[in-house]
Specification:
single chain; alpha+beta; CBS-domain; 2 domains; three-stranded mixed β-sheet; two-stranded antiparallel ribbon; globular
Length: about 180
């Protein structure tokens, strides 16, 4: 189906700890590979979400986040800025296993699949709300806004971590519009 992992995913069964089924989002937004980046960005903004799953001929083909869309050519297609492969997990995966998989693959969201069917998604924010701390999630938190998306440690600012928005993104749209 185009998933990065088998339907039941890595770490599907572990009776210790909270499972992602307890913290996952069940309302998941999708776009298709031929959706315009600007339309996908509007959808994310209007629904206050950070990640959209991308369908390619009905199958999960990629994932895109707000930052990918902000940096994309506004008249370009989502397929040009989506990330692949998509790493999927099963609902009985523990939140710690999900955090480890996110850290290993440098992703911020994992779709949750049962028998080849998408049943939800878990994000770093969901894991943080479930009680995992930044060290468990493997990524820095923005010093200014406490955000966790696209945070980078700036060696020129004494190793302080800032997200894309707080750093003030390089305006690439003027070149692509």
């Amino acid at each position: 189906m185009g998933f990065g992992l088998p339907a039941e995913g890595r770490g599907d069964r572990d009776d210790r700890g909270t499972c992602v089924a307890e913290v996952m989002q069940t309302s998941v937004y999708t776009v298709t590979t031929d959706t315009l980046a600007a339309a996908a960005e509007r959808l994310a903004a209007q629904n206050d979400i950070h990640h959209l799953l991308v369908l390619d001929e009905g199958n999960l083909g990629g994932i895109v986040c707000e930052n990918d869309l902000r940096q994309a050519n506004r008249t370009g297609l989502v397929s040009s800025c989506m990330k692949t492969p998509v790493y999927c997990i099963g609902p009985r995966t523990t939140i710690k296993q999900a955090a480890d998989l996110m850290q290993e693959n440098r992703v911020g969201a994992l779709p949750i699949v049962v028998d080849g069917m998408l049943v939800g998604m878990v994000t770093r924010g969901d894991l943080r709300q479930a009680g995992l701390v930044s060290e468990d999630l493997g990524g820095p938190v923005c010093s200014a806004c406490k955000g966790e998306h696209h945070v980078r440690v700036d060696p020129h600012a004494g190793g302080v971590a800032f997200c894309f928005e707080c750093l003030g993104p390089v305006e690439t749209r003027a070149l692509t519009d």
